[in-house]
Request: fold
Amino acid sequence: MTESPAPIDRLVALIEDLRGDNGCPWDKKQTPDSMARYLLEEVHELTDAVIANDADAVCEEAGDVLFQVVFMVHLFSEAGCFDLEQVIEKNLEKMIRRHPHVFGEATADTPEKVSQNWEKIKREEKKGRTDHSVLASIPSSLPALLRASLVSERAAKTGFDWDDISGVLDKTMEEWREFLNEIESSGKKRGGDKVAVEFGDLLFTMVNVARFAGIHPETALLRSIQKFEQRFKYMESKAWASDRQIDDLTFAEMQTLWEEAKK
Reply:
C-alpha cells in the first residue's frame, strides 16, 4: 500500500498547484512584498485566538500562518533563493547552537541563565556585521509597544537597568508628574509635541514596570482591550434589545449597563 504524503508535503503541492499554469490567477500574481501584509494579518489573528484562549481558533489560525509562511518560502524557491528544506535545516542548526545546555556541554539551570546565554550566542553570530548594537536585530516595523518591550529587555540584559521594581516605579511617578506638568502648561492646546514626548516617556517607563512585574505589556493590553470590547458589546446588545442605539442611552444608563457587564 502506498503511503499518503505527509501533510506538509500536501501543503507544498497545493501551493505549487495554486501557482501553476492552471492555478489561481490571484495566487499566481503574488510576490513576497504583496504577501507580507497577509502574513502579518494572520499572525495578528493567531495572537487574538491565543489571547482569547480559543483552542479551535488557535488551530485554524495557526494553519493560516503556516500556509502564509510556506507560500512565502515557495516564492523565494521559485526565484532560486532557497527552499523549505533549507529553511528548516537553517532553523534546526540555529536552535541547536542556541541551546548548548541541551545539546552541548554548557549549563543553564534557570530561564534567566538560558536567556543570557541566548543573547551572548546571538552576539557571537553577528560578529562581522556593520551594526553591532544589541538592539540592531529588533524589527523597526513591530508595533510600538512590542518593540518597546524588546528594546527594554535587550538593554536590561547589558546591566543598564534598575535594581528592582521600586526604582522603576519611582521613575514612573516622575514621568507621570512631568506629563501632568506639560498638560497644564499647554492649557487648552491639544496634541502638542512636548505633551506627546512626555506621554511616550511615561508609556516606555510603564513597559519597564511590566518587565519587572513579569508580564508582557502587549499581551496585557490586548487582554484589556478584549475585556473592554466584550463589555461595550454587552451595552450595545442591551440598547438594541430596547430598540435603541448605544448613543441613544444616557450616560447614567451606560454606567448601569457597564456595571452589569462586569459581573
Summary: Residues 96-126 form one domain. The longest helix spans residues 217-241. The chain has four domains: 7-82, 96-126, 144-215, 221-262.
